[in-house]
Amino acid sequence: MDLPEITTIKKIIKENYKVKTFYLDKNIDAKPGQFVMVWLPDVDEKPFTLSGIGNETSITIEEKGRFTKELFKLKAGDKIGIRGPYGNGFSIKDNACVVAGGLGIAPLKQLIGKLKKPIIIFGVKNKDDLLFKNEIKKHKINACSDDGSIGFKGFTTDLLKKVISDKKNKIKYIYTCGPEIMMEKVFEIAEKNNINCEASLERYMKCGFGICGQCAINEFRVCKDGPVFSSSQLRKMTEFGKSARMKTGEKVPLKTYYSYRTK
Amino acid sequence: MLAIKLCGLALKNPLLLSSGILDLTAPLMKKAYENGAAAVITKGVGLKERQGHPNPTVIGTDKYLLNAVGLSNPSIFKFKNEIKELEKVNIPVIVNIFAENAEKFAKTALKAQEYGADAVELNVSCPNITKEEMVGQIIGKNPSLVEEITRQVKETVKIPVIIKLTPNVDDIAMIAKAAEKGGADAVSAINTISGMLINIEAKKPVLSNKFGGVSGPAIKPVAIASVYKIYEAVKIPIIGVGGITTGRDAIEMLMAGATAVAIGSAVYYRGIDVFRKIENEMLQWMKENKVKSVKEIVGAAHGST
Predict the structure, then answer these.
(1) Three-state SS sequence of A196-237
(2) pTM (2 d.p.)
(3) Domains in chain A, start-ordered, CATH in brackets?
(4) Which end of chain B, N or C, is less packed with Cβ atoms under 10 Å?
(5) Of chain B residues 132-161, which have a CB less than 8 A from chain A?
(6) Do B201 and A79 touch (CB under 8 A)?
(7) pLDDT for A135-178, tens place per residue?
(8) Overall number of domains in chain B
(9) Which residues of B are catalytic?
């Protein structure tokens, strides 16, 4: 049944100055990378990736637009509508490098827990944007920031090149989630080095279960065929990193789409 | 065995992708075609872009889907690229259009024709729009408006004109007759049935528009009855739509009087390859029952008079 189920918010953790994790009183048995539709009656319904599953079921959200502002007003004990989980999720492979950009760490957190000694690259604008420090601290993190306030000053892609070229690392798989422009570069690097890549993509969604066609990227539905796409699928996507569909269905440059999405 | 002609269009089988499902973009419509649909009917498009309603816009249960998307579309002018992309690879494309009056319908249909549409389907049946907007079923409930709009579009374009009818009326056959009188080449029946779902914990309707349109298996008997009634009232072909999910459903719809069958919600129940599945199930039934062509069974349930 693809209907929202009213669910209580168990607790809310402030991750940083703009990000909160909402733990739900509902055990969702999902794969890392799957998402749920979150309904706020009288406001809207939006897709959010699960940052925790099972009895730790959670969503991690940045206060950004109208919907998330409303969500941030809620307290533990308040109720929201949840349906899902939806989408395919990540595969689990050894010799992996995980590349996260900002809040892109949310779906990757679960994956990291299931991988054997992954190398993690985590890029943020500034050290204040870091999150999940406790959850991922047992792994070796290669951090980078735009301003050098934490880790390497520069991009995740610079670090990725270094990690790959160090043959000791034997990287065979790259998982990525973050700004699409970053993921496009990550995929380029993966292709050049003949390494498999999986990227978690985002588009405006309606049904969440593959029938309305709103979240199309070429012939792929992000909600049903994705949101995680493999190298062979990414190769076929002429729209990846280039364009996206607005609510009206109009195809626009990715920049135009992003400026609308943050409203 | 399955090939048919619909309003002069030669189709490899009688199965069409229904309007509203996977039909906002050319690549997904192409995928439906590759999965066995003989033609695609696009998302409803108008002269101006529309954002549609906020989410939730579509919800699903094991028996029905309920939607109120709200005619979101990029406008016929920006939809041009999608139509052209389908035309380039010779996929028969029926453009579903909506408008407030006959003149705007004609203008939109003319653009669709110019961009390469093989036919237009006039949406006079969308249930998910407020009364003030004067589009959708508010038109389709009025036989003289349906006749007037059909006539003006017919006078404007050369391509076939199909009228999609709403079941939310007293007598759907009377509306079909009005369309025929206006010169329609075919009718599609039925659009969704007005409905609502309330979440009892939230004490609120789930759809942001509160009301929506019900589709899927639950509405099949209504669709079958509507097509049966229309078949007895008009001579023009009928595209049967509403809850068709299996090969047996499709055969039943043909026997009720449909020349072709449009499939939408079944994608939810059986996946995007539902067209191929239904096609195979039809072929098997036809072999078992020694039916050589689907044309033989159109209207078969009406008996001989």
Answers:
(1) EEEEECCCCCCCCCCCCCCCEECCEECCCCCCEEEHHHHHHC
(2) 0.94
(3) 5-86 (2.40.30.10), 90-200 (3.40.50.80), 203-227+239-263 (no CATH)
(4) C
(5) none
(6) yes
(7) 777 888 899 999 999 999 999 999 999 999 999 999 999 999 99
(8) 1
(9) 126
